[in-house]
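Explain this one:

_____
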Amino acid sequence: MMLPARANDARLFLAAFKVPLMRRATLLFPFISAVAFSQTPVKLDPVKWTANTEVGTNGEVDLKAMAVMEEGWHVYALTLPRNDGPLPTIVAHVPSTDYTLVGSVLEDKPEEVEDPNFAMLVRHHSHNATFIQRIKRNSAAAFEVKGTVEYMACNNSMCLPPVTVPLVYKVEAAAQ
């Protein structure tokens, strides 16, 4: 029987040690497993999110969700021109008796470009973006606002599945 060069070399190597067939398989299994599973998948995480607050007037506070994207990556705006393309970014906050939402979420002005992944005009943010929700505090005590941001990150050749990131905004006690 004619074996390929590598297989023949391995057979000769193991035969030199006069190792029974099952024992050979047992000896080779860790080596084969190490080679087969040595390439662990790389998890792409091109967007980092932070949450902070900025105190305004009349008991109002701005909740700021800020994204920093790796070079070449972007996240989509809150609204998009069409519904048959990428998913828009969604910023949500858990209701609480500590505060009342004032208006809707605002965002930095997005870029409007032709997206090669969807072959359509879209609005997105590159490098960094800030999404702001204003609240009116109902309590003078310190409290936390919990929320999430759901977004889709893309570059010029691929898009990652949508991701939901939890956010926690720490609102300090009101000045007396």
Summary: The mean pLDDT is 84. The longest helix spans residues 21-36. The domain at 47-171 is CATH 2.60.40.1250 (Immunoglobulin-like). The radius of gyration is 27 Å.
